[in-house]
Design goal:
159 residues; mainly alpha; three-stranded antiparallel sheet; 3 strands; elongated
Amino acid sequence: MSHSKLQHEIKKKQPFDSLEQAAILNILRTSDVFHNQFGRLFREYGLTPSQYNVLRILRGEGKPMPSLEIASRMVQVVPAITGLLDRLQAQELVKRNRCTEDRRVVYIEITAKALKLLKEVDKPDLDLHRKLIGHLSSAELTELSRLLEKARTSLKSVE
């Protein structure tokens, strides 16, 4: 296996054990770089990436949603959705409403304050997406998404 850019970046003396290992480590390294960039952007608006994700889900749905449904749609799995929602509620970005038919179900509603905040973040967020991978062609972006989705399909049989 040849000397890769990643191998040089992480100062790994020996070649990777397999192409699969090199590819996964490349994905993880890229994810870390991107996550740090988005984390920095969202911090400027008083949000974490997970909080931003919750607000985007609620805005996209356009109506209150059960908290477990929000959790199931998250880009990154959040083990403590209740704590995340507590922090959003403390910032007055969401409201909680208990379901009258089933008291165990809690509906989460986005506030006007959160919608205003998202509107402020929209352009910088889009700009950061473009800064990070806008140098790839439409065909490359399509292929990258296709390959990443294909890679995740192997998990269906493992879970």
